[in-house]
Amino acid sequence: MDQTLIESGTDGGAALMPHPDVAPSSGGIAAGVLMCVMSMSCIQFGSALSSPIINAYGPAGATWLRLVFASAALAIIVRPKIMSYSRSQWIGVLALGTVSALMTTSFFSAIARIPLGLTVAIEFLGPLLVATLGFGLSRQLLWPVFAAIGVLLLAYDGEEWVGNWPGILFAIGAGAGWACYILLTKRVGNAFKGLEGLSMSLLVAAVVSTPFGFAAAAPHLTAFGLLEIAGLALLVPLLPYVLEMVALRRMPTSSFGILMSLEPAIGAFAGFVILSQPMTPSQMFGTALVVAASIGATIFATKS
């Protein structure tokens, strides 16, 4: 898995700006592992907990509300210098913000239709393809093939196909968005200081999603609903970003990439615990195939 993939969060979650490799502290790796697990749990359980919000406001409305709260909170912390950026910086954040809005809407649209574990596994194919295509048309393309077989196993519960075409297409769209998101995150991370690029891209994403999200969410907003959404915005993406950023300072990026490969399995577990989405043994094996393919791509990349 290449550097850009290792340094980027998921779904909808946290985008990690490029960091150089640093020597991990002797006692810091265990803490880094714990932070990675906490980050992935925040992202996937946050996605599962978003189900009532999606049902109440629709995927576009839920996306807009989460982006509004997350972008406002980060802007207060970072205080980006909006009037000081160059044309190329603005192009970067406009592209990244637009992709972020579309990716999140697609992801929410998918989990509203198909199981969370299947959605995350399909979405994971996007960054996995980015990583393996970086090595050209070689045997590394076997990793996405293994992952695709895992997705097929996830989509069948032994009696019937659990997915539907709209949900699958939205998940594929989220995966394509994630692939673009990784490439754009690297560009934006190199163009801005600290978290300014992330803050500006979230602001752009909130604005881009407003025409669709406001109309869907505004008629149904309540005080309790706003409080609930504010909490979910902290759960994803702000807390995962902080956890991943600190974790990368405590452990090698190769180890970080292997740990983040567990995301589809955690997504499936979150779907089982929060949304009561059971899994058959073949579906569990499919999840394991997706995770193994990601780990294999990561290990190969570190040896190349």
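^ that was protein a. below is b, sequence first then the tokens
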Amino acid sequence: MLRIAVPNKGSLSEPASAMLHEAGYRQRKDRRELVLVDAENEVEFFFLRPRDIAVYVGSGKLDIGITGRDLLLDSGSPAEEILQLGFAGSTFRYATRPGTAKDVSEFGGMTVATSFSGLVTQHLAENGVDASVVHLDGAVETAIQLGVAEIIADVVETGTTLRNAGLEIIGEPILKSEAVVIRGTGAPDDDPKVRQFLRRMQGVLVARRYVMMDYDIRVEHVEKAVALTPGLESPTVSPLHHEGWVAVRSMVPSKDAQRIMDELYDLGARAILTTGIHACRL
């Protein structure tokens, strides 16, 4: 069986399980369940702490896993990302009191507090900065107030928490993270079970981003209409019973669907319909 690590809690857990369910895999009904066998799909799921997943996958104990890019890089584990999943996005940045420093190049001799000590240590080394790193498990913004560090490095969403603590964001982002599928470095590329899993997950990603659009339009306007709805390869165009009219079917980005419908209507298209896509293979 394919052995897959899945986050058991936190911001990664629910979206990961939802995506796996959409991909046709069984998911646990009880949060206390740590191992789930999906015999029909020949998969065994292990529900683990998100921070531990890269370690298990990198050691070869599990075949693949779902975790955050930040957690993967912070672990230093011999694992690599093989698919971006598009959820749990975050930006990792430095912050400090106004006037302390303007850029990472000015951190020399200072102390940086963070929950991602591996990631920060690597980033400082890449920038040639000799600074100390203190590992904290959470609430790092208080480290400066308590005199533990002059700089902090943390996940930033709106920046409100930092501003409330009297801190400002400095420098360029350390990392932009999201949920990713990972495998051990050096794992074979041709594992058929892994390829099947990735196809299913990619199918979910496409199904979430696209809708199927159908419409009727006169033959003389087909080329302009098709330019608006080119599809992934080419739209399907079928003649209708009424001469001079055709039916067109194409996948379009869901975020653009309303605008495209308006433009098609202005071209003379009628009976314009959109339907959701539940699954697909490209």
